[in-house]
Structure formats: structure tokens, C-alpha cells
Amino acid sequence: MNENLSSNELREKFIAYYKEKGHAVLPSAALIPENDPTTLFTGSGMQPLISYLLGEKHPQGTRLVDAQQCFRVNDIEEVGDSRHTTFFEMLGNWSLGDYFKKEQIPWIFGFLVDVVGIDPKRLYVTAFSGDPSIGIPKDETSVEIWTNLFTQKGVTATAVDLGTEENAYIVGMQNGRIFYYGSKNWWSRSGTPETMPVGEPGGPDSEMFYEFPDVDHNKKFGEHCHPQCDCGRFIEIGNSVFMEYKKEGEGVFAKLAHENVDFGGGFERMLQAINDSSDIFLGVDNLKKILDVLEEKSGRKYSDSTAKKSFRVIADHMRAAVFLISNGIAPSNTDRGYVLRRLIRRMVRHCDLIGVEEGFLAPISRIVVDSYVSIRPILSEQSMVILQTINDEEQKFRKTLKSGLNEFGKKVIGAGKKSLNGEESFYFYQSFGFPVEVMRELCQENNITFSEEEFNKEFEKHQKLSRFGTDKKFAGGLADTSEQTTKLHTATHLLHTSLRKVLGEHVGQKGSNITAERLRFDFSHPTKMTTEEIKKVEEIVNEQINRALPVIKEITTPDKAKESGALGFFTEKYGDQVSVYSMGDFSKEICGGPHVQNTSELVSFKILKEEAVSAGIRRIKATVG
Q1: Among 140-149, 300-309, 334-343, which range has the highest average pLDDT?
Q2: What is the pTM of this model?
Q3: CA 377 to CA 534: how far, in whole Å?
Q4: What pLDDT, on a 0 to 100 scale, did the predictor assign at position 35?
Q5: pLDDT at site 120
Q6: CA angle (359, 85, 209) in 5-degree steps
Q7: Helix axis angle, 378-408 relative to 422-432, nearest 10°?
Q8: Is 451 helix (H, G, I), strand (E, B) or coil?
Q9: 407 vs 91: which has the higher pLDDT
Q10: Long-range CB contact pairs, 83-88, < 8 A, 24+
Q11: Which of 137-151, 310-324, 437-451 has the lowest mean pLDDT?
């Protein structure tokens, strides 16, 4: 066993291993998906490569390798156990119509066993059991390859057909090493063969699991343990997807023109296995470094069962917050900004629970920066922005947290309440900014029943009232619908396109706010604009005003709008119909706000100020007329 392998060592070994086998090395894509309004974050290694897996030619060839940064919102509330994290990396190797099973399986087995020293006796694998009703056979090819590989290492590899998870809990592992499952070992973007839409590609996969024999099976999950059990005895460390089919009709599948391999290896879980730690926070050096500092600053031990959850929440959330901020996200009450705000506020709460002094949260971010700066150099440049963002958000939250806790003590604990209804819990959310998880934890700590369902109903009721109160206003952050704000709103379109022409197509709208006096436009850009760049943008906007371009509105579908080249950089999903506004041959954008009929109505355009909002996000304030 190769003990205490570091994060940097594992990443470098994986990349070097596949580079030697002819794979081009890809940089990690951003955590904010490019031109994808359907999801807030990049949540898997394959997400940035899906178009190439579907047949588009990749500029770097047919063999690719990467280490992709990922974030999953759904795991926020799971953090606190020994296995879950919100931010993680995925190690990936990809074949786009090049090699297939007979290369992929021996390569990944060789990497795990021969390169990083995992004991093959602790490895278990799964394969697809087939589906005769749709003409897809049992994946005996993968099982035969796995059997030979284990045998070569002196490990008996019996194959057992478990079928479903439900059956696996009943019959157990039966001394097997390789296990057939049904839909659990099928991959597509849309789930099982039955749920996949026509035209969707997919295929069988083969997963690898590492066993921690010292972890006792918890029978609350089922009578017998097996690799897909969630008790913690087994962790999945990698999955080779063999994408070779396309759905052509109900129950009808055909072979794709090319067979692809999509391997995704959970980086932290792989490191956890290599270092033989059933606790991911002890098995991953970059997480353990945070635990060590928390022990020092709190005077508590990680081994203390009453402190362990807080240690884990802070360690995970700090790492996630640093990466979110470095990807240009700032705390707010909507979308990605709200996710970041939840992470920071939850950290504040758990720092208080273990006695970490106020104001120390931000300096912990330096541990993350130092741990990852070798693979993400921009962290060094952004370290002060990261520290300041976390510190500012902590101070904002503490102002309301203190009074909110006092109020909770009086109105709930002091009143002897045994439960918190939706109206009461929403009061703490609205008045003191308590995230749902803070209320849940407060109630758990004081043996008070908390109904999240009731809270959600109250939250939805509030949303409907808010929408009713603003239904006569236009979208896009307008304070009113006067002639001046209409002019300023129109100017944001000209400004958006001009910024992309001067700074590059990476520029995308991140928010806007318009009053009768000025427009405020937030956009993605990594550096401060130069005086020359500001002047050039002004000149381009004024040129379009002087051209007296007609402003034309068209109602169409989101797909057709995007096909026509219309910009649409918002995170929410569009409805069936959208409004597209074109200004001559210069600007075309999806928008729901009011516009002038001709750009000449703006008269003139002047930039008042250009400034930073957060890491990677700039702001322009400007006026017209």
C-alpha cells in the first residue's frame, strides 16, 4: 500500500500515465458552465465534453485526459458524514471513437494497482447485466477482461448476477468479486434505457469500488452489504462508461457510428482509497490541513464526536467557497451567489459551535489557496479578494445572526416550543437570513421538530406575492418603466456587444440594475479595463447610436433564438417563447424589457465608472442623453 500520497502527486501521476498513452491534456473547464443556462455549476467531468462524446470532433484529437473541478449543490446538506463533499475533482480519460474495453479496463486497473499501489484484494467491480427486451446483451466482454486481470494478481474473481439493488440486499455478495447489475450499470444523461428520449446516446458502464473491511455494515440500508450499498463499507472510485448505443424508438436501440470511452474517477475518493482511510477528510491531505488548523484554533479534537460534523462542514465549505469565488461568483440572494452565501453562513455557524473565534474564518482560506495554487495559479492573484469576500459575508451574517439567535432563544426555546411551523421558520429566514440548514440544525440541537415542507410552502407563498407585486414591471432590474429607464435598458444591449468586441467573447452579462439616473451592468472579465478600452467601448456604442439603427422585436423559441446568434447569458430556464431584440446588424439578444424604437433616441452614451464586483466580475455605470 502506498501510504500518504498527496493530492498533487495523484493528479500528476494520473495525467502522466495517460499522456504516455497518447492522450492530450485538457485544462479544467470553469465551474460556471459555458453557454448552458440549464445548470448552475459544472457537476461532472463529462459535462464540458458532452458535444464531443456525441460526435463533434475535438481539436486535440481522439484521446484526452483531464482533472476537472466540479461542484454539486445537492450535496451541501449531506456534508458532515465521512464521504460527502460539495467541491471535488474528477479525473477523466476519454476515447472519442479510438480505443475501447480491451484497452480501457487493463489501463485503469494497471494505474490503480501498479502505479498508485492499491491492493487488488480490496477492489470490486460491476458490469451491466443486459436487457434482452431492447436487444442489449450482458456485458460479458468487460467481465472476462476483469476476471483475467484479477487472476493475474492471484485474486479469485467470481462473477455474480445481482440484478437490482433490492435483490443485492437480500442475497448478498456470495463471495463474488465482479457483480452484474441492471440499470445501475447503464449510463446516459437521461437515466435508464426506459427513461431516455429518442436520439439520446448511452451505454453500459463498469464501476470500481474499494472496500474498507473495518467499516461495519449498517443494516438500515439492507440486510446484506454489496458494492452499491451506501453504508460506507464500499466507495466507488471510478466508472468506465462504454457509450456505444443510441435510442431510436421505444425499446429500439442501435449502435453508434463510433464507440466512446468516458472514464470518471472521483479524485478525492481515489486518494482516500490509496491512503486507506474510510474518512475522506483524513484521507485527503488538502482537507486534513484545514482540520489541523481548526483543532489548533478551537482547542477541540476532530475525534470528538460532538465536533466532527462542524470540522467537516468548515473544511468542505471553505474549499468550495474559495473555488466559487475564484470562478467569479459573489455572495447574493440569487442563483450561484446564494449557494456561496449558504456555504459561508453555514461555516460561520459551525465555527461558533466549536469555538473558533470570530474573524478567523477568512484566514483559513489561505490554506486552500496554498494547496491548489500549483494547479490554479489565479488563486494567488485573487487571494485578497477571496479573503475579503469571506470576511465581509461573515460580518454581514453575524450582525443578523446574533439578534436572530437571541430571538430564537426567546420565541422558540424560551417559550418551550416543541415544533417550528412554516410561518415561524420563514420569519427567521426573512428577518435574520437564516438558511434552511441553520434552522434545521438549531431545531435538532434543541429537540424541536422542524417541518421543511411547511417552510417551503411559506417560501413559495412569499414568492407568489412578490411576483404579483412586480408583475407590471419589466424584467432586467429596472426601477420603473419611464422613458429614461427604457433608453438606459436599450443601451445595455449596445454596451454588452461592444464589450465583447473590445475585450473578447468571454464577456457575458452577470446582472444589471437601472434607475432613472444611470445603468449598472455587471459582466465577466478577469482584469480591470484600461482607459483605452473604456474609451473604445464608448466610441462603439456612440457609433451605433449615430447610425440610427432600428430596434426590432421578434417572438420565437429559445432554440431558434440561439440558432440565430442571439445572446442569452441568464441562468434561469427560458419559457416556450422568448422575445429577441435586434438593433440593425450590431446587436441581437434575448430580453423581456422595454426598448426604444431606434438607437438615435439615446442621443449619446457616457461611461461614468468601471470597477470590480468580485473576482472575475467587473461593473460599469453609465448614462445616456
Answers
A1: 140-149
A2: 0.71
A3: 27
A4: 54
A5: 97
A6: 155
A7: 130
A8: coil
A9: 91
A10: 83/232, 83/235, 83/269, 83/280, 84/280, 84/316, 85/268, 85/280, 85/287, 85/316, 85/319, 85/320, 86/316, 86/317, 86/320, 86/343, 87/316, 87/319, 87/320, 87/323, 87/324, 88/266, 88/267, 88/268
A11: 437-451
Burial (CB count <10 Å: 0-12, 13-18, 19+), residue 309: middle
Of 160, 280, 276, 274, give the one whose Cα is nearest residue 228: 160
DSSP 185: G
**493: enclosing H helix or E strand:** helix 483-503
Q: In this structure, what C-alpha cell is assigned to residue 185?
A: 450499470
Is beta strand 605-614 parallel, antiparallel or unpaired with respect to 587-590?
unpaired
Average pLDDT of the segment spanning 458-481 = 50
Q: What is the 3-state secondary structure (H, E, C) of 299-317?
A: CCCCCCCCCHHHHHHHHHH
Query: Quick one: average pLDDT of 3-16?
Result: 92
Phi, psi of 315 (to 5 degrees): -60, -50
First to last CA, the chain: 72
Between 578 and 19, where is the model more confident?
Answer: 19
Residue 318, all three cell numbers: 471553505
d(CA 91, CA 17): 12
Residue with grid cell 487493463, as numbered in its chain: 106
Rounded distance between C-alpha atoms, residue 362 and residue 384, angstroms:
10
402, containing H or E segment = helix 378-408
Judge whether residue 173 has pLDDT over 50: yes
Q: For residue 113, is it left (φ>0), alpha (ψ between -120 and 50) or beta?
A: alpha
Confidence band for 477, pLDDT divided at 50, 70 and 90: very low
Confidence tier at 558 by pLDDT (50, 70, 90): confident
Q: Which amino acid is at 172?
A: G
Residue among 484, 481, 475, 476 nearest 623 (CA): 484
- Averaged over 496-500, what is the pLDDT? 95
427-431: long-range pairs with CB below 8 Å, 24+: 428/404, 429/455, 429/459, 430/462, 431/400, 431/404, 431/407
How many angstroms separate the CA atoms of 30 and 34, rounded?
A: 8
1 pLDDT above the threshold of 50: no
Q: How far apart, in whole angstroms, are the C-alpha atoms of residue 32 and residue 67?
A: 16
Q: Write the CA distances from 76 to 71, 86, 199, 247, 435, integer angstroms.
A: 10, 6, 33, 34, 12
All 3 cell numbers of residue 30? 470553469
Phi then psi dihedrals of residue 21, to 5 deg:
-95, 25
Please state, in angstroms and as integers, the Cα–Cα distance from residue 376 to each residue in 27, 370, 371, following that order: 10, 10, 10
d(CA 70, CA 201): 23
Contact (Cβ atoms closer than 8 angstroms) between residue 200 and residue 190: yes
CB of 325 closer than 8 Å to CB of 340: yes
Greatest alpha-carbon pair distance for the chain in Å reads 81
53 torsion bin: left (phi>0), alpha (psi -120 to 50), beta (else) = alpha
pLDDT confidence of 37, banded at 50, 70, 90?
low
Sign of CA dihedral 131, 133, 136, 140: positive
Written as nine digits, the cell of 76 is 451541501
